[in-house]
Amino acid sequence: MDDHLRAPDEHLDPAVAATYDDAVAARFHPDEVGPTVDRLVELADDATAVEFAIGTGRIALPLADRGVTVRGIDLSEPMLDRLRAKAGSDRVEVTVGDMTSVQLGVKTSLVYLVFNTIMNLRTQHEQVGCFRNAVRHLAPGGRFVVETIVPRFDRLGTHVFDLSDDHVGIDEYVDPVGQISISHHFVRDADGRHRKRSAAFRYAWPSELDLMAQIAGLTLEHRWADWHRSPFTADSTAHVSVWRLLVR
After folding, report:
1. In Å, how far from its chain's centre is CA 73?
2. pLDDT for 40-54, tens place per residue?
3. Which residue of 53, 58, 150, 235 has the fewest CB atoms within a 10 Å radius of its CB?
4. CATH 3.40.640.10 fits 2-150+204-245, yes or no
């Protein structure tokens, strides 16, 4: 586990960035992207948004197609290179940097962080820093949106979260004190062979994220089980949470 914690974020690796879109191809499907973009358009009151961990533009590019001015931050230059190679990327302003500290000098109605990426921050201190940095970018009444999994007590241990011809994903919960899991991915290459990559993440329960939001000056406005606004229940395996900046 220590080796995984010491390892840099895997998305900094050009080889990972080069195959990222293929590895998560299902998340690029219109049935996945459409509802996400629909909700973000509704939440971006002034038609501007900042995306933390913008990656290859899975959400930012279709959001820009809907008329929202998107600025993004990402630590990985290789991931941003993939974004810049795509049609319409000239409409999205990107900055290389850490989403816990880099400031873009703008005030917006919406900051968002999707696809479990809050877990890429491997300490509670860093996750609190992310919330605080989101607030630095928000105008009064602005919103911070996070999409992530719900850790499940019944799944602590080893859990297969994806099983398909092209990808096998296994979560290994290795440190319940530090709240660390290791995700193992077996991705099929073009030659038919499966390539393994593993990375460590820090999971957090919704109540802990609510406390981080409170520390940063945010209050919970909505919590859904998905981007379709399905009710969040004790059986939900993921959540989309919307916190709003208190107007002082």
Report:
1. 12
2. 999 999 999 999 999
3. 235
4. no
- The alpha carbon torsion through 23, 152, 209, 221 (nearest 10 deg) reads 90
Alpha helix positions (H), the chain: 2-6, 14-23, 30-43, 60-65, 77-84, 124-136, 206-216
Q: What percent of the chain has pLDDT over 70?
A: 92
Percentages of the chain per state (helix, strand, coil), in multiples of 5:
35, 35, 35
Contacts of 184 (CB under 8 A, 6+ apart): 169, 170, 171, 172, 196, 197, 198
The structure tokens listed for 164 are 């398909």
Neighbours of 26 (CB within 10 A): 12
Segments making up each domain of the chain, as ranges: 2-150+204-245
pLDDT at 226 over 90: yes
> Is 233 within 8 Å of 206 (Cβ atoms)?
no
Alpha-carbon span 65 to 38, nearest angstrom = 12
Parallel/antiparallel/unpaired status of strands 167-175 and 180-188? antiparallel
User: Can you give the pTM of this predicted structure?
Assistant: 0.90
Q: Mean pLDDT across the stretch 196-219?
A: 94
